[in-house]
Amino acid sequence: MKKVILIGRPNVGKSSLFNRLAKQRIAITSDISGTTRDTNKTEIFIDDKSCILIDSGGLDDSNEIFKNVKIKTLSEAANADIIVFMVDGKMLPDEQDKKIFYELLNLKKPTALVVNKVDSKKDEERSWEFNEFGSKEVFSLSVSHNIGTDELCSWIYKLLPETTIKADMSDDFDEFLEGFDEKGEIDIEKPSVDYETKNIKVGIIGRVNVGKSSLLNALVKEDRSVVSKIAGTTIDPVNESYVYEDRVFEFVDTAGIRKRGKIEGIERFALNRTEKILEESDIALLVLDASEPLTELDERIAGLGAKFELGLIIVLNKWDKEHGDFDKVVFELRDKFKFLAYAPIISVSALGGKRVHKLYPLILEVYKNYTQKIKTSRLNEVIEEAVRTHPVPRDHGKIVKIYYGAQFGFAPPKIALVMNKPRSLHFSYKRYLLNKLRENFELNGTPVTLIPKNRSQKESAENENR
């Protein structure tokens, strides 16, 4: 698939154009120069043709982060098929812009000059000054007012190969309908999503400077995220796909999270975007710095994985700097994160690439457990045995019965316990049943939801969980 990169100096509107062409707000936009630091990628459709659109970091040499961003951006441009170079139409032509543009022309790829922020007649007159760049393809745009983007899209369209793919939602809609029976109720015997073929979405979370970007680079085996010792380098989410054993992993490196009182400016947008990513993820990699003591912030971030009911793997990074006893560290971690007792723990050195390869099969294992359909007959055998061993406590002398259990949801597994007195099931007994389920089924890395349900109710089990 052809790659189209948006390139230019900071604050010329690359992320705004990226969002406009993608028809959704993916990249964070602000008036702060240098908001975008890593490249964003997404597939877009222009009529019946598709391509990969890339939003790059601004070209700037003012500090360490921006120098790294510039190097990465120029590397991405060399690997792209079509280059869209953007300049600020509110300003007069700049010699630095010319120099960069001529460097891009030397790559011998289709290259367009886009003059953005042409919002008025005065701006339009000034935009003619950019003809001195000598570009054969010049487009005047106002991305904020959606003026001129059609002409740019037409130019890109002509450069894309013919395809039979169409940008419609018919397949997704058919898949949606297959989850319902003739009465309009969910078929609990079959998930509405094909979990065996869909891409596995993995969000990488943690506080600032724990090595999330280094981990993403090690997982996809390329320098996908800008890495710097400066805390808060990653602002936009950085996504990249990787194929392992015929399964596609979609990794997303999210912005590092600070203490609430230290979050300011565009980092507030980044935090909101992190939560949005987790809403759409299957698995979270919780990255902790093994060379430092666990903090309250680590615990709060870990709570995001539980909040969004994700499969979860705890990654102890920078283990090469840690000279302690692994079992002791795990014991301390388990004691602090009791609510994540189901999450496997793995130590890695992302920067050195040590043991990172062990994450691939572990992700597959957790995902399989997270999306599994538990056989109803076996489920009830386990529940009956658990009740015989330890009967359900009575409610003020009245017998509390569990008639049977049935799975009604997936990703993670959700199980309804059909009972005579669902409100009388104490949380400690639910915990006992969960432990029994984990002893008898492969549930490593996944949360499990138990919902007591009254047998006399006609509502479907999924409504109990709303």
Automatic annotation (TrEMBL):
- In the record, what terms sit under GO molecular function? GTP binding; ribosome binding
Superkingdom of the source?
A: Bacteria
Q: Where does GTP 2 bind?
A: 206-213, 253-257, 317-320
**Mind telling me which Pfam families this protein's record contains?**
KH_dom-like (PF14714), MMR_HSR1 (PF01926)
Keyword terms of this UniProt record: GTP-binding, Nucleotide-binding, Repeat, Ribosome biogenesis
Transmembrane stretches in the record are none
**What GO terms in the biological process aspect are recorded for it?**
ribosome biogenesis
Task: Check the record and name the PROSITE patterns matching this protein.
Answer: G_ENGA
Binding-site list for GTP 1: 8-15, 55-59, 116-119
EngA-type G domain span:
2-164, 200-371
HAMAP family per record? GTPase_Der
Q: How does it assemble?
A: Associates with the 50S ribosomal subunit.
Task: Quote the function comment for this protein.
Answer: GTPase that plays an essential role in the late steps of ribosome biogenesis.
Per the record, the similarity remark reads:
Belongs to the TRAFAC class TrmE-Era-EngA-EngB-Septin-like GTPase superfamily. EngA (Der) GTPase family.
Q: What is this protein called?
A: GTPase Der
Instruction: Give the taxonomic lineage as stored in the record.
Output: Bacteria, Pseudomonadati, Campylobacterota, Epsilonproteobacteria, Campylobacterales
Q: Which gene encodes it?
A: engA
